[in-house]
Amino acid sequence: MYAAKRVTYAKKLLSTVGIDPARLEMYNLSAAMGPKWAEICTEFTERIRKLGPSPIWLAICRQSGMKRSEE
Amino acid sequence: MIVGKQKPFEEIWDMIKNFKKVLVFGCNTCVAICHAGGGKEAEILASMLRIKASQEGLEMEIKQAAIERHCEPEFFEPVMDDVRTSDVVLSLACGVGVNFLSERIGSIPVYPGINTEFYGAVPKAGIFTELCAGCGNCILHVTGGICPIARCAKSLMNGPCGGTNNGKCEISQDVDCAWYLILERMKKLGTLEKLSEIKPPRDWSTGMYGGPRRIVLEHIADSEAQAEKKDS
After folding, report:
1. Does residue B30 register a pLDDT over 90?
2. Are B57 and A18 within 8 A, CB to CB?
3. 20 to 30 A Cα–Cα from B59, which one of B35, B53, B136, B207?
4. What is the mean pLDDT of chain B?
């Protein structure tokens, strides 16, 4: 419960600095829930793909003059 | 302890965005307890500022540090190199710490990252309540251990006002009426008659109304001065 509240707080902090809070998520799982874990990983990876590269990464690329193709 | 609250991020960003080298400087005593300005909060805030700087395309070097106390000189020494090589120090200490560090390093700006709020306690984790006003003339022995100066919205000295409402203050249902608490406590203590004693008007000059305060303990200040003389 404390962890969930802290994740909510961390989402707020991320949003303050312009990072989509959807990039952070907490799931409650037991060690015996392997298939569910795999499902969540796939789902979450898909979500991040849709959101695109991290704005921090893009900002660093812009600063260092690195091209997206070099990522 | 002194209770503080971190300033809004945008306000902090506006303060420091024009500097190249920033030190976010936490204090691990009171403001760490209230999760506003300890070493952990300094790290989090420094990370947020780095993210913001990179998004704004600004080249900034943002470091963080924390010491045990910002109100005594001896704690500063290990971090003074970092402090002196910064363009600005964003202090997460209380106002005392900001003043004290500012005096020590006059050539570098020291800005406040938190708003210093009050002297308070932690009745429950994450909740902080004001209990003392630091007025310099304590009367808790005649008010059942409950301070009417800090805890009554009007700092009344002679009982509740007309705004008391079933034990709550008229300013908010979340605020207890201090005088209701005082009367109930004194009933329990069997000392209610103390409130009937006629008191002279209070001398408010012992608080902030009398200007900045200073306490000198000669037996300590003198021996420290002598030890310094010997050393030199």
Report:
1. yes
2. no
3. B35
4. 94
